[in-house]
Design brief:
heterotetramer; A alpha/beta; B mainly alpha; C alpha/beta; D mainly alpha; C: alpha/beta; Rossmann fold; 6-stranded mixed beta sheet; 17 helices; D: mainly alpha; globular; binds adenosine-5'-triphosphate; binds beta-D-ribopyranose; binds magnesium ion
Chain lengths: ~325, ~325, ~500, ~325
Amino acid sequence: EGKPYKIYLSNNFVGNDWRQQMERVAEVSVKKGPLAGRVDLKIENAEGTVQAQINSLNNIIRSKPDAILIDAASAEALNPTIKKACDAGIVVISFDQVVSEKCAYALESDWTRIPAVMAEWMAKQLNGKGKVFVDRGLAGAPISAQLENGYLEVLKKYPGIEVIGTYNGEYALGPEQAGVASLLAAHPEVDGILTQGYGSGAIKALQDAGRKVVPVTAFSYNVAATTCAQTEGAACILGSNPAYLSSEAIKLAVDILDGKPKPADRHILVNGDFLATNGGAWTSELYPKAVIQKIEIGKNAFPDRPPGLTLPITPDWVEITAEEAAG
Amino acid sequence: MTMIASEPGEHAARPPSAPARWRGWLLDRASLLIPCLMLLALLAVYGSMREGVFTLDELNLDTAAAMTLMLAATGQTIVLLRGGIDLSIGGMISLGTVIAATQFGDGGATTLLWSVLIVLLGAVVGMLNGALITVLRLQPFLVTLATWSILAGTALIILPIDGGSLPSGWMAFGSGSWLGLASPVWLLILLLAFWFWFKRTRTGIAIKATGSNERSAFLSGVSPLAINLWTYGLSGVFAALAALYLTTQTGAGSPTIGKDYILPSVAAAVIGGISLFGGRGGLVGTIIGAYILTIIGNLVFVLSISSYWQPIASGVILLIAVLASSLAEKSSRRNLS
Amino acid sequence: MPDFLEALSVAKRYGGIVALSDATLKARSGEVHALLGENGAGKSTFIQILAGAVRADSGSITLGGERFAVRNPEEAQRLGVAAVFQELSLIPDLTVAENIFFRREPLSPLRTARAGAMREATAELFARYRFPAIRPDQELRRLTLAERQVVEIAKALARDPRVLILDEATSALAPRETEWLLGLSRDLAAEGKLVIYISHRLGEVRRIADRVTVFRNGATVAAYDTASVDDDTIIADMLGRQMERLYPERRNTTTGRIALSVKGLSVENRLADLDLDLREGEVLGVAGLQGHGQRELFQALFGAARASGAIEVWGKPRTIRSPRDALSGRDGLALVPEDRRNHGLLLAKSVRENLTLSVVKRFTRFGLTDPKREAKLVDDMIAQLRIKAGSPEQAAGTLSGGNQQKVIFGKMLLTDARILLLYDPTRGIDVGTKGEIFTLMRDLAARGYAILFYSSDLAELVHVADRVAVLRYGRLAAILEGAENSEHQILRAAMIDTRAA
Amino acid sequence: MNLARHRSILFAYLGLILLLVVTGLVAPGFLSPTHFRSLAVLAAFIGIVALGQTFVVIGGGIDLSVPWVLNAAAVLMTLFAHGQDAPLVWIVPLLLAAGTLVGVVNGLGVGLFGVPPIIMTLAVNVILQGGILVYTGGAPPATAPAAIQFLAVGRIAGFPVIVLLWIVLAIVATLLLSKTAFGRYLYAVGSSATVAEFSGVPTLRTSVAAYALSGFTAALAGMLLTGYSGQAYLGMGDPYLFTSIAAVAIGGASILGGSGHYVGTIAGALVLTVLTGLLPALNLSNGALLVVYGAVILVTVALASEALTDLLPRRRARRIS
Ligand SMILES: Nc1ncnc2c1ncn2[C@@H]1O[C@H](COP(=O)(O)OP(=O)(O)OP(=O)(O)O)[C@@H](O)[C@H]1O
Ligand SMILES: Nc1ncnc2c1ncn2[C@@H]1O[C@H](COP(=O)(O)OP(=O)(O)OP(=O)(O)O)[C@@H](O)[C@H]1O
Ligand SMILES: O[C@@H]1[C@@H](O)[C@H](O)OC[C@H]1O
Ligand SMILES: [Mg+2]
Ligand SMILES: [Mg+2]
């Protein structure tokens, strides 16, 4: 093993907590542990647009790296450019927001399992009967559609559950809170809210409207976990899309470059643990193997840490501390 | 009352000296010359940091990277010259890619037919903008904001997320080359040819004139409705063309991609010397503006700046570049007030 | 001879404002027909209707015996009516040649405008009608107002019209160009065209018009053969009252104190090394042929053009880098600018806002404007200058040309500045008000103001100014005083290099 | 303010009323006092950001740096305050001053150096974004102090505090525009910078002040917004770019400057909020939502069009030659 591998991480967008943690985690995981000194990692941020990422990728391809890791602006629109990279002999791994181009690996959370388990949990919370709001995420984003459909798919099996309103949470607190607040005005009788975001915005909207807190699904941000743990009467389940997907992508790239056996399937699913207020006391029937941790302050909810911290923080092959992840 | 024998042909003032005339000539073109100098300066720095910048390959790559923006900005340029603004290109570009990716199929004939239909749709949508603006006397900003939303919504209805596919022949055209020049370069040549023709046509002159002084243009016989139909219609057409070209680069329909070109299309034009108040500037400046925006991206890449500093670097480079031109432009105005 | 143009009872209102109530005009081909009336009488509105730029509410018009109902300027042009608009119809970003042939460009087989052909045709046109020299390939925005006026005339002529309308086309022209236009109008009439001529300069009208029609308050009040009527009658028709005299009695109110002293003032290659003193109580005229540095002098003094040299104001050295520097309080300088549409008025804003723009502080108390005080200033000024506006809230751009000029004049008067730079302050102003403005100027001088006064009408300089400084090639050619101050002497000094002589 | 001279403003309110009527028909629950209250709170944020934007637009400019001024103030406030109220005493004034300073930089770039407003403020926005990322190392910030939360979601006698604050700001803005020399100068500069210059208006100072005000209100809104969400998050300013400009435009201002009023902007902010609040109730797909959104804006502004009202009485009067 001589020179470190030259690996580029092309990130289409840096404007949220998750992406920032993802970049920090990537940098930490090539500085220590098994990959220390093995990777020359360069991060390129594209200004949130497909065009910028295409241009950035073209620049990256011209500098002939060993591998490119891509958190993609589009599942489809980068394909011709990625194909070019593959044809140039570069290992390409898309992660988080993955691409459909066959020559690239796609490493992502299991977006089928996550909404299914969370919707199942909600149905159980409501005893199969009640009115819910559903977050549709961000218009045009593939994961949004997967989550929304995943929720609806499972809820359909419970005739007593009625979706009485949808809103676009856009993975940001403000829109989530405003969306739920608007819906509450028209439908104060809601019994549960299935968000794709922080969940805490929905809870805040309920509180502002003077409503009792209803069961909420959300993602495992620190703010969601702490809010659920600390709010009187809150019931939550949090799905996890770990920010260390970037580290996993780096590891995969190094393994492939090292000549280790390639994964059989180009599509690699990462299964993060769920967090729930009743974790340990409830198991999914749809996915019995899904691990559901109980939300506990100090263990997986950290009131003194940044609210935007994504949980869990570290993969199992390298120790990344909360400190490092929070920057 | 005064009586003097008129002495026709003799002008009272001293004729300007040769250097003064030269200066006048330069000042008249300052808004174009300065972006040119900016681009050259950027290229000089960029070229010193990367090999092969002064080759055809670089031209091919950068033109391919900038072409969607150039096409979108061509329409925007025409609208800005007229003194308007077109936000709806954002919706039209999305819609265009979505229709292409869902309708082209595999046959050459359907591809051709639908391409023409998309361009026609662009024209119709643009003309609708123009008609609303004229007949209801509404601000272009508001009308095109609304139609942007409507078009973007339609695109999302047709294709809720990126998808669809384009025929391989179509994609091959996008990445093809001829005589060493990539197809986007040929497109650029066509675009410039169109512009040098169009700006000399009566319609082209009238669009610029209307932006320069609407009332005078009207008094001279320009029909406000006709001019707005042309202006916004052309903008729609170029947005459609931008969409078609974009699909050759992305191979997909993208219902939300168009918005990414709205501000940059205005920025490219403004960097290229177009005034938002209409009447001044042209496509050459805009093309240079689009190259500048693209080269800034390349430059930031080769400067190997750490990731969080990248936006700062591109912002600062952009400001420095524009500051130079603004100062020169300002001093030229000042001297002639 | 039957009347070629017959407009009967034309009316036009703008909301509550009646621009025309009963306008009638009958004119023959081959004549110069003057259209007269005080500011706001409706002359421009009337010719805009003829030119298709405005649609009448009622009335009937025939041209050459045919019903003439045009819906836009293009139709009017096709029927042979071309107008030189008071507001001008030129495009700042096109060249002179492009302006002249705008909408009628000669086309190549590719349907592009043939630039060469336009330039040649422009040169030919200029030669045929003996135009003052203007380079056809210059951008219009680089031209002076007078030059623009000339281009506007060329543009109208290029259409070879049957009816040529000149709406105050001489108002910005210097004597020599005015002469040229008068001659041109006669020639065109002699060719059998109808020239409708609007002007507030009765002398011009008398020299070229065969007949006159007088409007007052939007209605025709009289029509005469020029030869058969005297000026006083016409003026009485226009104003609805007798006018005493145009020029006030001139009393010398000059004191020994120097208000403004200029040493070695230079502006690019337009103004070279000028020395000039303006005294308290004095009206100092500035004259010269078009383009010999008058406008640069005014702009430089007002801080609107870059200049070098030394300026002393009321005995103290001053650097004036911007109009704001110039306008500073009682020791300041105020300007009536040449270009009212681009430098003088916020066209979309009200008469009130325009009048008080430079003096907002005067009616601001504890940081807030006091509408009552403002209204008082505005109402007084409207009354003093007889500004004809529907209300102080009318948009300045919808005032008649002369009334726009009055607003600019009033705006300057409201400032505290006691040095007034008046660049053609009576341009487009009717005789009645002109007389009042001259009286006002002399009164101000008597109250200790110092006035620098340029006029495109030499007679005004002769009759109102105490002394006249004549510029030639950007240098002071002569200062004329007393009996020397005559039109003849001014022109001599302006055209013959006295220093060389 | 003379409403007759501001027809477009009047009509913006008519549009708003119409929209409320439609809302009442589509979703009766939306006309409840609680909903009004939550709408008013949301509108207040847009309204406050759009306040500065109104001044900039009237002065003939545009401020695209709003998103990251807002975001920077929000992030830095939570970062400095660590959830404590006490330090707000210096943090809030400091950040308001910083926002104002960014505006001053914008104003100088535009007014002194002649950089086109779009480019100047766009570049400043990008630089601020990068600056915040670099400064915080992307560290996600902490929660909003209680005092800020009170300002954003608290109530006094059932009345949302932020709406009270908005009303105060609206009064100040209205006074500034209608009753001060600065307001006069601003309209003049926006109508014609040349004429304003010739009239002795301090054009540079005026446009710098407008941008400064915009920086101030964006920073203020940013801090308040953390109170609404309970925390700051990156990207929280993004939605305010187009909404602030759209609110100004719907409120009757010409995007080219010289006209408009904050009174109109308020209607614009309310129209946009009611509309975004109403749309989810329609249960439409994302695409259909955008179509309806666009169509409603078009209809609202079309109703306000002078052309539409002009067409009717004029027809009768016209019987020509
Ligand atoms: N490059 C320049 N040098 C000197 N003066 C200029 C220059 N450009 C414009 N001006 C002056 O600024 C003023 C405004 O010019 P502009 O061309 O924008 O006016 P316009 O187009 O006729 O009016 P509008 O904005 O109503 O269309 C004019 O007086 C013009 O002479
Ligand atoms: N668009 C308009 N809106 C409102 N009033 C108008 C408009 N255009 C003209 N007017 C009014 O119509 C009247 C006649 O104006 P017009 O310009 O025809 O006068 P004029 O005779 O040409 O005066 P001048 O000698 O000053 O040029 C004026 O009172 C003017 O204010
Ligand atoms: O990439 C996504 C990130 O941008 C979003 O905010 O959180 C979930 C991730 O999948
Ligand atoms: Mg203009
Ligand atoms: Mg007139």
